[in-house]
Design a protein that fits this description.
The complex is a heterodimer of chains A (493) and B (585).
Chain A: E1 15-17, E2 20-22, E3 29-34, E4 39-45, H1 49-63, H2 68-71, H3 74-90, H4 92-103, H5 107-128, E5 136-137, E6 143-151, E7 154-158, H6 164-177, E8 181-185, H7 192-204, E9 211-213, H8 218-226, E10 233-237, H9 240-253, E11 257-261, E12 267-270, H10 276-288, E13 300-304, H11 305-321, H12 340-355, E14 359-362, E15 377-380, H13 387-390, E16 397-403, H14 406-413, E17 421-425, H15 429-438, E18 443-446, E19 465-466, H16 471-477, E20 479-487
Parallel strand pairs in A: 7-8, 7-10, 8-9, 10-11, 12-13, 12-17, 13-16, 15-16, 17-18
Antiparallel strand pairs in A: 1-2, 3-4, 5-6, 6-20, 11-19, 14-15
Helix pairs in contact in A: 1-8, 3-5, 3-7, 4-5, 4-7, 5-6, 10-11
Chain B: H1 39-54, H2 71-76, H3 82-88, E1 107-109, E2 112-114, E3 121-126, E4 131-137, H4 141-154, H5 160-163, H6 166-182, H7 184-195, H8 199-220, E5 228-229, E6 235-243, E7 246-250, H9 256-269, E8 273-277, H10 284-296, E9 303-305, H11 310-318, E10 325-329, H12 332-344, E11 349-353, E12 359-362, H13 368-380, E13 392-396, H14 400-411, H15 432-447, E14 451-454, E15 458-459, E16 465-466, E17 469-472, H16 479-482, E18 489-495, H17 498-506, E19 513-517, H18 521-530, E20 535-538, E21 557-558, H19 563-568, E22 571-579
Parallel strand pairs in B: 7-8, 7-10, 8-9, 10-11, 12-13, 12-19, 13-18, 17-18, 19-20
Antiparallel strand pairs in B: 1-2, 3-4, 5-6, 6-22, 11-21, 14-17, 15-16
Classes of the chains: A alpha/beta (493), B alpha/beta (585).
Domain Aldehyde dehydrogenase (chain B): 113-576
Family (chain B): Belongs to the aldehyde dehydrogenase family.
Biased composition (Low complexity) (chain B): 15-31
């Protein structure tokens, strides 16, 4: 078992501004815990508005015309990102360990999935830096017209606790590749890997002020970022509820550009003609991965009537076998939930499922004597009106619903305000393409799940978000287009 | 490709190869500074944790040493600006190697070294001394056939190369860049000895360009995107951008390694396999890089290199029935033969980068100081052996006499000699044939009535050296104003009006590049639009960077290399249309 005792109480993790380490202006600190053991890992300097102001000032200075960062060749920006990827790869075990301690996710997942994603995302955007091309435009009249794709400026980023480092890199990599500077607030539950990344950013040689990291809480540091008049763009990943606040604050302050990656209640549609082995396993991993704490969680599984009973039976078998325990144990697939608040919310939703008449197939309660661990839970006979079929659970709970026809399932799948992802399991080409076009979701996976790649855009329809991250599409969120038109002298030929 | 000249920095001493800058050395384990927040405490714990649980404390990163381009400068230069920062992080030029061995002299097929089928070899020389450096296996049709078979095999559906992730292809190219950087001194020395190229140029410009090219193309690998198309009717249509297949690539001798990478990097990034014939004068650096290709981990057969001559190995490539595309850089004369052979054989795709007779137009309002240096370098760089050489310099009447006088002063400053020797500013021409051709053109200039201002003949007792030569009072119909010279011979012509100079500049079958010097915005834009040329440089010249497409109008070439445009030449577009029951927007 992990011992955290050798982290000295006094070694609080500081704020990262201008490539230097700072204490909070208020002198306040907050503790970050290991959700597996509920022990305190260490204290972290608690950033608030004055610290955000300091960070923004640094980011603005780094973004001044004529600054080293603004004058750097685009290819060199890419090179810095590549070198950052090299350092993340070098310190992969350290970062994965920190991530597991701070978030409770299984170490092997942290090492192989989170860190792999970080490295690939950094390398992918490294390659874009010198490929963000403007255009020359055949306008009417005797003028020359061209566009410049310029960085937006100082970008705020507020990141979640479920994939702490990966979600940060999703924001950082495109922002830096386009030439922006950044002020980041990591989630208060999981600030450690972000701060460690700060040390790597410095080691690689990004100029001071290009990346600034202010740990703190949403209503204070987060609010300061979203309403800051000198921040030109904000990217947020988190709940839909907070996403609305962020966009509201952005509008009230300076109309900063906003991208949001929010909640989901993602339909996973299993047709009778599907490869059932594959569908059962994907749906299982789709909802239980990362303790169910994924915005992409497959938390509404629609199964065609003919195969429903079989699907439920096999899903329950899977869920019962899921190893829950110490995330540092290599056999563990499921660790603790992130904190008491989430834990309580999940148990409350499980109770609502029981009360509203869904059939509890397995799980349905916390692990005995074990802090924040919840048993993998499967509900069958779930109907669309139940809370567990409508609300985001963010826990290890699989609600399985029944459907009869394709038109019906399309309507039901689309009936919520969310629209992040959807999945379809079928062998039929026409059905697959029909569902792919009919589903109101930013991503549709066919015969796979959580197939997320740095190359492919990711984001939500409807209230699951605004804008896209990853892929070439992400670049448009981090650039302003400037149209330059030059009138020519009509006397020249 | 050639030396970038940017006026704001005046006559640049050592170019601006920012990417290839100094590398920091970092040990495999991270060394924590005192101010590091994890300090001695947390780090120890973390390592213990990892050790106890997973024994990963020895977790190796792929790059034990992480290159740092500007951190060194960041620590020492108080942030004066990125440019000074980047240029100050440029490597000091080391001394060339004195004991270079030419280890790799065979044919490279399937990641293995082969003797030529015929058993023949050919000699490779140092043009500065006329001494033989080594002998190289001479590839011919049979060897090309072997190489094509290997390349075809590596391109089979289901092969390791075809099933590799695009991002992994990019990783391999990135690794190759790191290896080229590691062997930079070897390669620069080789390029200088075999190509007669000034060592400092080889080290900074050629090798710097090589590294940028590889890293730029590496980034494209997973960004070559097809599209989904809103076709009419109940159909779903998408495009796949697929590699073309086996690509033949025939290289020139003026930038041997850089042109090698200009060809293979985009081809490999797109997923093709290649059969390369380096120029017979300069096959050595490409063969050295072959070992690095193997070391980086490219599967066998992906890159194959067959040294040999144009009429034999080159012809075998251009007329091969199983090569899908051929790319050639060289003379217009040979380019025509290649396209003809491609047409007669299997209609393989063709891209050509050929000759030029590039105009450089200097208006009276230009910054004269800068214009003089830039126009001078635009012609004399690498002994004039550049396809973009600005060998028709048009100067506006009112400044003509002064411009000529000062150009001559500048040309007289050269120190000729062995290009490995520090302080030497001009090396030899590549070989006897070129040497004689240039001298013949100089004679024609004298005979046809141009005024010889300086130079005009050979230099020294051995090696193919030619004196820097300037002609004034050159008129458009003289041979030196029409034919590509590919030597250190500058033609300065006079012009009066804008209309007139545009017409004269375009009055050639070539259209590779052009230069303009003016401070007038309108003139700059108008003349750039009017010139029939694949590249126009305004107040600079030879600014070639991997992000920008490069290629010729008219008989200077077909297609473009580098930039996103260059990637179109290495992909086939496949349109896939699927009938569906009902379309929705």
């Amino acid at each position: 078992m992990v011992s955290t005792s050798s982290f000295p109480e006094r070694a609080s993790f500081p704020i990262f501004i201008n490539n230097e380490w700072h204490e909070s202006k208020s002198g306040k600190k907050f503790a970050t815990y290991n959700p597996s053991t509920l022990e305190k890992i260490c204290e972290v300097e608690e950033g608030d508005k004055p610290d955000v102001d300091k960070a923004v000032e640094a980011a603005q200075a780094a973004f001044q015309r004529g600054s080293p960062w603004r004058r750097l060749d685009a290819l060199s920006r890419g090179r810095l990102l590549h070198q950052l990827a090299d350092l993340v790869e070098r310190d992969r075990a350290v970062l994965a360990t920190l991530e597991t301690m701070d978030s409770g996710k299984p170490f092997l997942h942290a090492f192989f999935i989170d860190l792999e994603g970080c490295i690939k995302t950094l390398r992918y955007f490294a390659g874009w830096a010198d490929k963000i091309q403007g255009r020359t435009i055949p306008t009417d009249d005797n003028v020359v017209c061209f566009t410049r794709h310029e960085p937006v400026g100082v970008c705020g980023a507020i990141t979640p606790w479920n994939f702490p480092l990966l979600m940060l890199v999703w924001k950082l990599a495109p922002a830096l590749c386009c030439g922006n500077t950044v002020v980041v607030k990591p989630a208060e539950q999981t600030p450690l890997t972000a701060l460690y990344l700060g040390s790597l950013i410095k080691e690689v040689g990004f100029p001071p002020g290009v990346v600034n990291i202010v740990p703190g809480f949403g209503p204070t540091a987060g609010a300061a970022i979203s309403s800051h008049p000198q921040i030109s763009k904000i990217a947020f990943t988190g709940s839909t509820e907070v996403g609305k606040l962020v966009k509201e604050a952005a509008s009230r302050s300076n109309l900063k550009r906003v991208t949001l990656e929010l909640g989901g209640k993602n339909p996973c549609i299993v047709c009778a003609d599907a490869d059932l082995d594959l569908a059962v396993e994907c749906a299982h991993q789709g909802v239980f991965f990362n303790q169910g704490q994924c915005c992409t969680a497959a938390s509404r599984v629609f199964v065609e009537e003919q195969v429903y009973a079989d699907f439920v039976r096999r899903s329950v078998e899977y869920a019962k076998k899921r190893p829950v325990g110490d995330p540092f144990d290599v056999r563990t697939e499921q660790g603790p939930q992130i904190d008491q608040k989430q834990f309580n919310k999940i148990l409350d939703l499980i109770d609502s499922g029981k009360e509203e008449g869904a059939k509890l197939e397995c799980g349905g309660s916390a692990m005995e004597d074990r802090g924040l661990f919840i048993k993998p839970t499967v509900f069958s006979e779930v109907t669309d009106t139940m809370r567990i079929a409508r609300e985001e659970i963010f826990g290890p709970v699989q609600p399985i619903l029944k459907f009869k026809s394709i038109e019906e399932v399309i309507k039901r799948a689309n009936s919520l305000e969310y629209g992040l992802t959807a999945a379809v399991f079928t062998k039929n080409l026409d059905k697959a393409l029909k569902l792919a076009s009919a589903l109101e979701a930013g991503t549709v996976w066919i015969n796979c799940y959580n197939a997320i790649y740095a190359q492919a855009p990711f984001g939500g329809f409807k209230m699951s978000g605004n804008g896209r991250e990853l892929g070439e599409y992400a670049l448009t969120e981090y650039t302003e287009v400037k149209t330059v038109t030059i009138k020519l002298d009509d006397k020249n030929p | 490709m050639e030396r970038p000249l940017q006026p704001e920095s005046g006559p640049r001493k050592l170019g601006n190869s920012s990417v290839s800058g100094r590398r920091g050395t970092t040990s495999g384990a991270r060394s924590f500074g005192e101010e590091d927040f994890l300090g001695k405490t947390a780090r120890g714990t973390l390592q213990k944790i990892t050790k106890n649980n997973f024994t990963m404390e020895n977790h190796k990163t792929r790059n034990g040493s992480s290159a740092k381009i500007c951190c060194v400068a960041l620590d020492t230069v108080p942030y004066q600006g990125a440019e000074s920062e980047m240029s100050s992080s440029q490597p000091d030029i080391p001394a060339p190697l004195t004991n270079l061995k030419f280890q790799y002299t065979k044919i490279f097929i399937n990641n293995e070294w082969h003797d030529s089928v015929s058993g023949k070899k050919f000699p490779v020389f140092n043009p500065a001394t006329e001494e033989k450096l080594c002998e190289v296996e001479e590839g011919d049709k049979e060897d090309v056939n072997k190489a094509v078979a290997a390349a075809r095999q590596a391109f089979q559906l289901g092969s390791p190369w075809r099933t590799m992730d695009a991002s992994e292809r990019g990783r391999l190219l990135y690794k190759l860049a790191d290896l080229v950087e590691r062997d930079r001194l070897i390669l620069a020395t080789m390029e200088s000895m075999n190509g007669g190229k000034l060592f400092s140029n080889a080290y900074l410009m050629d090798l710097g360009g090589c590294l940028k090219t590889l890293r730029y193309c590496a980034g494209w690998a997973d960004k070559i995107q097809g599209r989904t198309i809103p076709s009419d009717g109940n159909f779903f249509t998408y495009t796949r951008h697929e590699p073309v297949g086996v690509c033949g690539q025939i290289l020139p001798w003026n930038f041997p390694l850089l042109m090698f990478l200009w060809k293979i990097a985009p081809a490999l990034s797109c997923g093709n396999t290649v059969v390369v014939k380096p120029a017979e004068q300069t096959p050595l650096s490409a063969l050295h890089v072959a070992t690095l290709i193997k070391e980086a981990g490219f599967p066998p057969g992906v890159v194959n290199i067959v040294p040999g001559y144009g009429p034999t190995a080159g012809a075998a490539i251009s007329s091969h029935m199983d090569i899908d595309k051929v790319a050639f850089t060289g003379s217009t004369e040979v380019g025509k033969l290649i396209k003809e052979a491609a047409g007669k054989s299997n209609l393989k795709r063709v891209t050509l980068e050929l000759g030029g007779k590039s105009p450089f137009i200097v208006f009276a309002d230009a910054d004269l100081e800068t214009a003089l240096e830039v126009t001078h370098q635009a012609l004399f760089y690498h002994q004039g052996q550049c396809c973009v050489a600005a060998s028709r310099l048009f100067v506006e009447e009112s400044i003509y006499d002064e411009f000529v006088r000062r150009s001559v002063e500048r040309a007289k400053k050269y120190v000729l000699g062995n290009p490995l020797t520090p302080g030497v500013s001009q090396g030899p021409q590549i070989d006897k044939e070129q040497y004689e051709k240039i001298l013949d053109l100089i004679e024609s200039g004298k005979k046809e009535g141009a005024k010889l201002e300086c130079g005009g003949g050979p230099w020294g007792n051995k090696g193919y050296f030619i004196q820097p030569t300037v002609f004034s009072n050159v008129s458009d119909e003289m041979r030196i104003a029409k034919e590509e010279i590919f030597g250190p011979v500058q033609q300065i012509m006079k012009f009066k009006s804008l209309d007139d100079v545009i017409k004269r500049a375009n009055n050639t079958t070539y259209g590779l590049s052009a230069g303009i010097f003016t401070k007038d915005l309108d003139k700059a834009i108008t003349v750039s639009a009017a010139l029939q040329s694949g590249t126009v440089w305004v107040n600079c010249y030879s600014v070639v960077s991997p992000q920008c497409p490069f290629g010729g109008f008219k008989m200077s070439g077909n297609g473009r290399e580098m930039g996103e445009y260059g990637f179109h030449e290495y992909t086939e577009v496949k349109t896939v249309t699927v009938k569906i029951s009902q379309k929705n927007s």
